[in-house]
Design the sequence.
């Protein structure tokens, strides 16, 4: 069991050395993209929700 844990940690260390981490500028740009996409999706869902709510009220009146 101890040998398996050692092996896992060794392999994890080797794999982590292969990782390419984003630069600060790339990270900031990606964050902006996610925030804008989230806001646009929220706006879209809100508009569709309002439209469907009004249609349902018209149908059931």
Sequence:
């Amino acid at each position: 069991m101890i040998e398996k844990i050692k092996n896992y940690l060794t392999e994890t260390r080797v794999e982590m050395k292969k990782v390419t981490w984003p630069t600060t500028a790339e990270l900031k740009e990606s964050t902006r993209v996610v925030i804008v996409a989230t806001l646009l999706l929220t706006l879209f869902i809100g508009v569709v929700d309002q439209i469907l709510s009004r249609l349902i009220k018209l149908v059931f009146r």
User: Anything to note?
Assistant: DSSP finds two helices and no strands in the chain. The radius of gyration is 24 Å.
